[in-house]
Amino acid sequence: METSEFPKGHPQLANVAINQAKNLAHNLELLAKNKPLHTFKYKNPGTMATVGKHKAVVDLPFMSFQGRLAWFTWMFLHLMLILSVKNKLTIFINWAISYFTNDTTLRLILLPNRKQIELGKENNSD
């Protein structure tokens, strides 16, 4: 969606989509009541991304930083945004185990290799 503040369109982030959905739901209620609709206005709260163990970037409207502090900030905010205490604890324990065992399998997408694909084809042809 192009606006004067975002002439090339809004950032393709979940936060934008969630806010647009809330605005749409509110506008549908207003439409049903024959009231004027509200235009969508996005206020960027900032972005964060992890880059690796002890590495992240945080880009807020008022400041930017990177490294270990950004990594702890990313972890803290993600844990706080999880709704239930049980889920927070489960995720924290999983993160702690992965951290201390250096287990990165939760972050990997494993695709079958050529040999596994060929074996699968042979087994299916029987």
**Average of per-residue pLDDT values:** 84
Order of helices and strands: HEEEHHH
Sheet with the most strands: spatial strand order: 1-2-3
Radius of gyration: 22 Å
Share in β-strands:
5-15%
Q: Care to count the β-strands?
A: 3
What class would the helix/strand composition place it in?
A: mainly alpha
Uncertain spans: none
Description:
With 126 residues, the chain is mainly alpha-helical. It contains 4 helices and 3 strands, in the order H-E-E-E-H-H-H. The chain has helices spanning 14-32, 68-81, 85-101, 114-124, and strands spanning 47-52, 55-59, 64-66. A 3-stranded antiparallel beta sheet has the order 1-2-3, with helices on one face. A hairpin with a 4-residue loop joins strand 2 and strand 3. The longest helix is centred in the N-terminal third of the chain and has 19 residues, at 14-32. The chain is extended and about 60 Å long. The model has no long low-confidence stretch (mean pLDDT 84).
Q: Which key terms come to mind for this protein?
A:
single chain, mainly alpha, 48% helix, 3-stranded antiparallel beta sheet
Can you lay out the helices and strands and say which pair or pack?
Elements: H1 14-32, E1 47-52, E2 55-59, E3 64-66, H2 68-81, H3 85-101, H4 114-124
Antiparallel strand pairs: 1-2, 2-3
Kindly summarize this structure in a few lines:
By secondary structure, the chain is mainly alpha-helical.
